TrEMBL record:
Keywords carried by this UniProt record: Endonuclease, Hydrolase, Nuclease
Organism: Petrachloros mirabilis ULC683
Entry protein name: HNH endonuclease
Domain HNH nuclease: 49-103
Annotated Pfam families: HNH
Length: 114
């Protein structure tokens, strides 16, 4: 009666499967942000940011403060990455906000409940 695999092998397979599922979840979660960061750091992304900075003349659309340098601005996802990963690099979903406004907005977004 040696037809089924011993328990320890079954358990190892089960454990491995769990780690593979976890790895897939982590990959899925971080892929859109990576894609966005690659774009943001590319020439295209930098050019877009400069263009937006010129367009808003250094004035944060949220708080209305005028900030002298482009470094004070961050690229915000109007519809958050968490809920709209497909819009990670969709220009119509991106805007510049000053650092504090972007942080404040990020804090207000609650992660989706399971
Ligand atoms: Zn602001």
């Amino acid at each position: 009666m040696q037809q089924s695999k011993p328990d320890w092998i079954q358990q190892s397979f089960h454990q491995l499967q769990k780690y593979q599922d976890l790895a897939a979840k982590i990959r899925h979660k971080y892929r859109p942000r990576r894609r966005f960061e690659r774009w943001r750091d590319s020439q295209d992304g930098q050019a877009w940011k400069q263009q937006q900075f010129n367009r808003i003349q250094g004035i944060c659309p949220d708080c209305g403060h005028q900030l002298p340098a482009i470094a004070h601005f961050q690229i915000d996802h109007i519809k958050p990455l968490k809920t709209h990963p497909d819009l990670a690099t969709d220009l119509s979903n991106l805007q510049l906000l000053c650092g504090p406004c972007n942080q404040r907005k990020a804090c207000q977004i609650k992660p989706p409940k399971k």
